[in-house]
Amino acid sequence: MARFSANLGFLWHDVPLPDAIRAAAAAGFDAVECHWPYDVPAKDVAAALAETGLSMLGLNTRRGDLDAGENGVAALPNREHDARAFIDEAITYAVAIKAANIHVMAGFATGQAAHDCFIANLNYACTAAAPHDITILIEPLNHYDAPGYFLDSTTQAASIIAEVGAPNLKLMFDCYHIQRLEGNLTTKLSDLLPIIGHIQFAAVPDRGAPDHGEIHYPHIYAHLASIGYTAPLGAEYKPDGATDTSLAWLHNA
Ligand SMILES: O=C(O)[C@H](O)C(=O)CO
Ligand SMILES: [Mg+2]
């Protein structure tokens, strides 16, 4: 039977993070994950996790200058100082709340210099995270929602993971983004299984609850079980209204 992690960047995003953790536990999720928890003291998050018994699977590095539209800086040449400060900050926070994964956000960039910069920053992140048993994740984002994002295919992600060659660098396979970019989810999940560190999902194309749209998720759950993937799947969707009224898919899974 599939297990699920509530992505608190989208689910219960309207309540403080510790209360969102409690809401996810009450709803029956097996784990939680978040985007950018940095405004909340880590001790408050750790206390809510201890109280509920849930683990926080992951968090993201900061995006950078939001007013300037940044969406990560790790592939931005000449921003190494910020990129590494964001990586250090994410590791410190992840250690405090015992989070297993950090998604290092690349940003809007293209070309060889961006590639070289991303590789160097990922090397830095993997080396710094390894003593804490933290895995670094990279995630291709679709170019409808995030046009110009540096990482936009599974082929590119697999090639970067091979080039860095660190055992703690993995792919965040977000079924929503990969369906919009490439499709062929069943085969890609099997082929990429050795490098997958976490899986997320949502309906396509509206990014709503995973109970409608062009992906039949019960097939994906069964396929993942058949290939031995048992980790919680990250429900990273945008509820149409209150999160609590969007959970029929969870109770029917
Ligand atoms: O948008 C997504 O799919 C991500 O998982 C994320 O972390 C924020 O961009
Ligand atoms: Mg995602």
UniProtKB/TrEMBL annotation:
Keyword terms: Isomerase
Keyword Isomerase: yes
Gene Ontology biological process terms in this record: glyoxylate metabolic process
Signal peptide: none
GO terms, molecular function: hydroxypyruvate isomerase activity
Pfam family, one: AP_endonuc_2
List of catalytic residues: 139 (proton donor/acceptor), 236 (proton donor/acceptor)
Top-rank taxon: Bacteria
Domain annotation Xylose isomerase-like TIM barrel: ranges: 21-251
Family assignment from sequence similarity: Belongs to the hyi family.
Protein name (database record): Xylose isomerase-like TIM barrel domain-containing protein
Species in which this protein is naturally found: Puniceispirillum marinum (strain IMCC1322)
Upper classification of the organism: Bacteria, Pseudomonadati, Pseudomonadota, Alphaproteobacteria, Candidatus Puniceispirillales
